[in-house]
Amino acid sequence: MAWAVFLLVGSALCTICSVTAQEANLTDSVGSNTVIVGAVEHTVYLKKKEDGSYEGFDQDVLDEISKLTGLDFRIKPPDDGRYGMQVDGQWSGMVQELIDKKIDMAMGLYITAMRERHIDFSKPLLAEHMEMLIKKPMTVQTEWYDQTYGIMTTEVQFIVLVSFLLVSFVTFVIIRVSPYENRAYSAEVGEASRLSTFGHSLWLCFSAFGWQGVDYSPRSLSGRFLFVFWFLFVGWTLLLLTGALAGFFLATATPSAGPVPTVPVQSFDDLAATTAVRPALVSGGGGESFFKDSQVSSYRRIYEKAIKVTSSEDGVKRARLGRTAFITTSTVARYHSNRKPCDLVSVHDAQSSLGSRSIGIGVQKDSPLRDRLSLAILQLREDGTIHTLYKKWTRELEEQCENAQFSGGPRSKQPGRDLYYRQLGVRDMLPIFVIVVVAAILALCIMGAEVLWDKRQQNATRKAAPPDNTTGACEDTNI
């Protein structure tokens, strides 16, 4: 009788251990108390440290769930580095690995109807919405002096200064070396030494820059060649500066009308309609699958012309280059728009149908882990732990950059006090700067040719001159 009792108790214990092991580790790849977690390295959510361990919002959430459930989690990045989307009936990323039972759960997945047909989800962990990261138009401070000083960037001011000094120096060399300049100065002015100084060359170039007359202008071919391109540089610079000043005074003359629109596209409909800005989507992410499967025509156009990037970092780099709107989650968009060099703005289309979207933990279909994870997530949300962890890892989302967010819809304006107008940038001045540098080099080459030609002419003149007969015989006289 006793042996029957021992046999019954032993069978019950084996059954309990088997069920526990199945719940804890569905992949059977590691210890019975370890759960394999798929996760993609992502800004704010998960970062790999130098020692191989992870940190971030997802890692802290897993640590808190581990305290409540007693489970140990081991992070395994997906082989293709994607979250998962369906293409021709075949899934990719972490979704496919859940279907193939290569991992037990996956972090950071959007809860969608398409995914829910193949995997299960826990209770929502976070609520996100889609935003666009766009290169911020150049802005200036509210002080009038700073505004007018900011019409030209520091790089443009440096280009103007270098061009001025370069032309002045080459002009000085031409005046001192070219024989046609020396003779012209001596013949017309009679003060060649005074006019052949570097200070006089500076005055010549400055007078040309200010459209003022000078007492003497270059007479040699090399000097005139150089000054033709210097006048071209001056004219181009003043033309651009006049346009920038017109934009500045237009912005200040009508303050009641509000500032100029801060971004080239202010809604997803604008993005779908324009050809000036291309959308960018993370390949295999929830955003790509949403636009691909959407029945809204404008969203379908966004998917058709979108640039597919491999990661959020790649999307941010493309946005910084300009003419690209990187579509990502609100957390990622606001994180990068509030980080230096403060050249990005996150745009939230409040009137679009891309409202709040839930992020949860994906598990295998009919997995017993779902209920345990959902209960733990509900408890962490109720006691404020999720909110605390989110604030911990998004503390850099505090307002570090001005005008980092833009919220609106079609034809909306962003209120504010700053003035917006286009500054002169390196791209505006670089072509004419290159032309001036090349002209200076050619002018020196022409000057060298002038020196050689003048020596040749002098040698030819000496050979053709008649001999001097001043040493003839004396006259015979009766002295």
Show the helix and strand layout:
Layout: H1 2-24, E1 34-38, E2 47-48, E3 54-55, H2 57-69, E4 72-76, E5 86-87, E6 90-91, H3 93-99, E7 105-110, H4 113-116, E8 120-121, E9 126-128, E10 130-135, H5 144-149, H6 154-177, H7 179-188, H8 192-195, H9 198-209, H10 221-253, H11 268-273, E11 278-282, H12 286-293, H13 297-304, E12 307-309, H14 312-321, E13 324-329, H15 330-337, E14 344-349, E15 357-363, H16 369-382, H17 385-393, E16 405-408, H18 426-464
Parallel strand pairs: 1-4, 1-7, 11-12, 11-13, 14-16
Antiparallel strand pairs: 2-3, 5-6, 7-15, 8-15, 9-15, 10-13, 10-14
Helix pairs in contact: 2-16, 2-17, 6-7, 6-9, 6-10, 6-18, 10-18, 12-13
Note the overall shape.
Answer: elongated
Kindly report the average pLDDT value. 76
Largest sheet: 6 strands, mixed
Percent of residues in helical segments?
40-55%
Count, helices: 18
Please report the total strand number as a whole number. 16
Termini separation? 176 Å
Question: In terms of structural class, how would the helical and strand content be classed?
Answer: alpha/beta
What does the radius of gyration come to? 38 Å
Unreliable segments of 5+ consecutive residues: 15-31, 140-146, 255-261, 409-419, 472-479
What percentage of the residues does DSSP assign to strands (E)? 5-15%
